[in-house]
Amino acid sequence: MTSAVDTPADAARPAPPSGLVAVARAPGWVRYALLAVGLLVAFWLPNGLYPAVAVDILCWALFAVSVDLLLGFTGLMSFGHAAFWGTSAYVTGLVAIHAGLPFPAAVLAGALAAALLALPIGYLAVKRAGIYFAMVTLAFAQMVYYVANEWRSVTQGENGLQGVPRSFFGVDLSDDYYFYYAILPIVLLGLLAAWRIVHSPFGRVLVGIRDNPARARALGYPVHRYKLTAFVLSGFLAGLGGGLFAVGHRFVSLDVLHWTTSGKAVIVVVLGGIGTLWGGVLGAALVVRLEDWLSFSGFEAIGLVTGGIFVLVVLLFRRGIWGSVAALALRWRRRS
Amino acid sequence: MRRSVGVAAASAAVAALVTGCGGGGPQSGGDQKLTGDKIVLGVLNDQSGAYSELSGKNSVKAVEMAIADFKAKYGDKAITKNISVETADHQNKPDVANSKAQEMYDRKGVDAILDVPTSSAALKVADVAKEKKKLYFNIGAATTELTGKSCNKYTFHYAYDTYMLAHGTGTVTTQQVGKNWYILYPNYAFGQDMEKSFSTAIGAAGGTVVGKDGAPFPNTSGDYSSFLLKAPTLNPKPQVLGTMQAGAELVNVVKQYNEFKLRDKGIGLAVGLMFITDIHSLTPAALAGTTYTDAWYWNFDQQNREWADKFQKETDTRPSFAHAANYSAAMQYLEAVQAAGTDDADAVVKGLEGKEVNDVFLRNGKIRAEDHRVLHDAYLAQVKPQAEVTEPWDYVKILKTIPAAEAFRAPSPDCQM
């Protein structure tokens, strides 16, 4: 290890648990270059990829970032985020079908509904931490799942909500290629919001709570209220993704609320890198693309592959892809 | 150092995955006679779950038989010899069906999708077909919504529907077995539609439905005991248990019906939808005397039998009506492309609408232009007692032929093409 103590900040934060610190400290031109590359890829994506898959990647990117906001920056492992993703999908679908609003309005309604749902669930869940928090969120998500399953007059149960329209002031968005560009600004706004939250004083407090809740409380921060706010914001972002997903597929099925959806979100974040924000975006792109590729080549046991990769990531590079690359870059910079 | 190797490998994988192979860009159509100079048929059905026996992979075989027969019939005059089959397992889930159908139309060059059992999945695929303007022949699903509210120009409902089943079975059973019914149905589009169609048919025949329950679908536990134990306690006591489950789920219901000895308690059995494969796995003894409506029977006449023999050579089993219907739909589609000289969906639809057909599956067949219901003769069948079964798979006698004009409902006013 070279230069154990570079600055006082390093001493105050030994062994950063994530790549966040590293990227934040990268010189400005590196960060702007990364941003430029990211935007270029985002604008090019549906030209090199089946557009429907590109749309899925955008939705899942938002979902992953919302989970990372809790898991990586607040230290809360939610295992029930499908509740917000799925609730928003259903609300978006219902609003789009029955009110005929343009899709961004329907998606906004869905995301608000998800945030509203996150309020009581979060209020009860943040009183617990660790595995108990995960179990409470899972329990609530399962409740939402069964409500959606039984409330057939509204959700159509097993049949799913069919025919969610993509209305947008008369513009024809039925081709996924154009739909991708229609939702890209919304997704970028969502990601920007997440970035802003993380880099605000509020976000700093969250990280403080994550690393040492007792000290945060001693410093006078209302820990529960901070956690709850983060939970609701995360629910809103997950809802934004879920609503776009519903419009993208023109269809909502019970699968959006299933616990496997929550599990997939966690896998995506772990693969991309916990507490890195952009790692979740990368993870979403990889997992969605990989699943699509496997299913396209007729491979049935997709869970086997994603599960295997998850195990490898946890065993070999626990910081995920983004986190590992960032840590490596940091080490290389220090050595030179 | 080991970590950096891992990271390098991961980065390489990232690059490979994100770019992958093409398939991007907006959709565009061509002006060729045949898109991609070939015809691709897509069989989308359940290949691992409750409905895999009655259709599943053997339907892919049936479609391959149709392609072989088409090539043999036209030889060098065939519009193309490059005809292939794509297939996928939709696991009876509408969202899997949705993405698989899109994938077939967009990326695998499929011109027409066939089969798609499970009504909820079928409705979703109809939606995709409409949007992509590509053909879809539904065989495996029964919901009348396909020719009602959800009908569209590119979707044809081929083999059967809930009206056909209820009209045959519901009427005869109410007249002959008993007027009071308890209906047990799988709680999704198919079951809900079956329940409605049967209730209507039973009411019209002078019977009443004293109770009805929707069982979860897919019923992973395979447990129906709570419903079956409830039936004898209802007031008035039902004389008929009408089960609307299908495939492997039907097998479970009938087994449990026999275990609880409901027949001895005075409750007869009526089956909404049954395939020959279900009778085979239950053995005819478990179902002897049960009357049901069939869309086709392999041993009905010499023509059917000859085709069934060919099918058995390929698959080692006798065909269900779904297998025969898949063969027929594939054949009729290829014939229509041959006649139109193009695989352009609109031209093919035009050729199919109103066409009168007779083939191994369709007897007195007609493709109704108003709602794309394919009309044909249906059959009232009864399971033989074990003693009368003289040949494997020949489990049924046909009581009567329901003429095509009576077997299906009149075009629904809900259908706006």
Oligomer: heterodimer
Number of helical stretches of at least 4 residues of chain B: 13
Helix-and-strand structural type of chain A: mainly alpha
* Main beta-sheet strand count, sense and barrel state of chain A: 2 strands, antiparallel
What does this structure look like?
The complex is a heterodimer of chains A (336) and B (417). With 336 residues, chain A is mainly α. Chain A has a domain at 51-255. Chain A is 74% helix and 1% strand. Chain A contains 16 helices and two strands. Chain A has helices at 8-12, 20-25, 28-48, 51-71, 82-98, 103-125, 130-150, 152-155, 176-198, 201-211, 213-218, 223-249, 259-272, 278-296, 302-316, 320-335, and strands spanning 161-162, 251-252. In chain A, α3 runs antiparallel to α9 (176-198), α6 crosses α7 and α13 packs parallel to α16. The longest helix of chain A has 27 residues, at 223-249. Chain A is globular, with a radius of gyration of 20 Å. Chain A starts with 7 loop residues before the first helix and ends with a helix. Chain B is an alpha/beta fold. Chain B has two domains: 35-160 and 300-377, Response regulator (Rossmann fold), CATH 3.40.50.2300; 163-295 and 380-406, Response regulator (Rossmann fold, 3-Layer(aba) Sandwich). In chain B, 40% of the residues lie in helices and 17% in strands. Chain B is built from 13 helices and 15 strands. A five-stranded parallel β-sheet of chain B has the order 2-1-3-4-5, sandwiched between helices. Chain B has a four-stranded parallel β-sheet with strand order 7-6-8-9, with helices on both faces. In chain B, α2 (56-74) packs parallel to α11 (321-340) and α5 crosses α6. Chain B starts with a helix and ends in a 10-residue tail after the last helix. Classes of the chains: A mainly alpha (336), B alpha/beta (417). At the A-B interface, α3, α4, α14 and α16 of A face α1, α3 and α4 of B.
